[in-house]
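Structure ticket #2291
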Amino acid sequence: MMDNSMDGGNPAGARRRSYEAGGRVARERMRQEAPEQAAALEEVEAGDIVVVRGTYDHVELVLDALHLPYNAVEPAAVGRLRLSPGQLVVVNCPGQIGRDGVAAVRRFVEAGGTLFTTDWALRHVVEPAFPGVIAYNGRPTGDEVVRIEVLDGCNRFLDGVLDGDDDPLWWLEASSYPIQVLDPARVQVLVRSRELADRHGEGAVAVLFGHGPGEVFHMISHYYLQRTELRSARHAAPAAAYAAEKQLQWIPGLAQSLAGLSLADVESAQSSARLFANVVADKKRRSRDGGRG
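Resolution: structure written out below.
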């Protein structure tokens, strides 16, 4: 397997360019395929999204790629925040927000808020705030990349994430925490990976569960993907081939933003950007419409 993380010797630059292109594709496809969700996304204000900064993950870079505003806070400040049910709170890995922060997050979700957490926040936030629902299985991953698949193509959060012959590869950070589902009746697995299950005992990549009128999303590893791999001729094709597959050549300037990237780069970035765009748009729409689904 060949690593495709370099851009003139600058892997960070390659990933940022991949997300800029993937975020643009995600928003343009949403406008074309789900105009009501796209309209809700356009209404998002900085106060709608609170990002708790992380040491290892940086979901705010995905928000930047989607051109979505947000407010960022330090982990130690969470316990003092005045959160409202209409907000989305994102806790980046490692999620060490302290006892007061955990209590504040629990109250926030119980009031109807939406929480989105990544990787080690499973142990530091989700387990203590919502015990008995999901947990770390004690078998950390290596630094590896796995294929993913969605389990319900009709789910509103998965709309446009995967379709047709898509084959995105998602990165697992070294020592990522596999997700054990303790309460299957309550937890919906949105995205899974057979490779992850075979290697580390649990296949869930992204899960969702309700708590009172609120909800919690959690994802293994870092949401901002640091790299991908080229496992097939399709993955190694120029990113312009992805635009052709999706019939997106009409987007002004897209070809220039895709230059020098592989199909795998943009496909993986688009899939994660679109999932997050769906979560943000759905939350905004329900808050605007009084919580109606």
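Closing remark: The chain has one domain: 2-287.
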